[in-house]
Amino acid sequence: MNGSAHSSGQGADHVLTMDELAVVIAHDIPEGSFVNLGIGHPTKVADHLPPERGVVLHTENGMLGMGPRAVGDDIDPDLTNAGKAPVTELPGAAYFHHADSFAMMRGGHLDVCVLGGYQVSALGDLANWHTGDPDDIPAVGGAMDLAIGAKDVYVMMTLFTKAGEPKLVPRCTYPLTGVRCVSRVYTDHATFDIRPDGVHVRETYGVSVDVLRSRVGVPILGWTDPTGHDRG
């Protein structure tokens, strides 16, 4: 594990890049899990999952057993993830119809999915397919199916917009992808657990909990260490 990107206690001493955040997420995915990685930054997680962890990656375009991204001579234009990025395959990889892939997603067969997000509410609602701006192009993909079908939904996003507005909010103002579906939010400033009693900090990166409380528009009820125990 890259110590500069992940540590216990107060976390890393700098705000994380999306590549560093992908390392954190990869470390937290339980061994042997069946996992779907959403289009965009979440696909970076595939590059940090050692084969010995036994994590099996699923893509909605019909593949089970996806490996890290393909580079150089490993690139096969017919072998891509759902975002059309070239990927590799691991031993035992399987291919199947698009409809079968969505049946796996909707049937509760995925342990974890990692999705991008525009907003996450304190209740775990997710908005990630449209900002509501008439000039934006909506991009639903399989996000709605994953948000409802996966046992755990991790969201990977920056904590603030370019304008400095928090994306962890009391109530989503963008069109919803799923209701009360998010279990954890990974951001460049901190990782949050969404629990029945509210939002708990899991780790921070380059910022104190007090600063987070002053900048994020939702109550942060406590500090939860990686084992799930409250620390105040």
Observed structural traits:
232 residues; alpha/beta; Glutaconate Coenzyme A-transferase; 3-stranded mixed β-sheet; 4 helices; 13 strands; 26% strand; disordered N terminus
Written account of the structure:
- Helix 4 (209-215) links the parallel strand 12 (198-204) and strand 13 (220-223).
- This protein has a single domain (18-223), classed as Glutaconate Coenzyme A-transferase (3-Layer(aba) Sandwich), CATH 3.40.1080.
- The model is unreliable at 1-10 (pLDDT under 50).
- By secondary structure, it is an alpha/beta fold.
- It is built from four helices and 13 strands.
- Helix content is 15%, strand content 26%.
- It has helices at residues 18-28, 98-106, 143-149, 209-215, and strands spanning 34-37, 56-59, 63-69, 87-95, 112-116, 119-121, 126-127, 152-156, 168-169, 184-186, 190-195, 198-204, 220-223.
- The longest helix has 11 residues, at 18-28.
- Helix 2 (98-106) runs parallel beside helix 3.
- The strands form two sheets. A ten-stranded mixed beta sheet has the order 4-3-2-1-5-8-10-11-12-13, with helices on both faces. It has a three-stranded mixed beta sheet with strand order 7-6-9, with no helix packed on it.
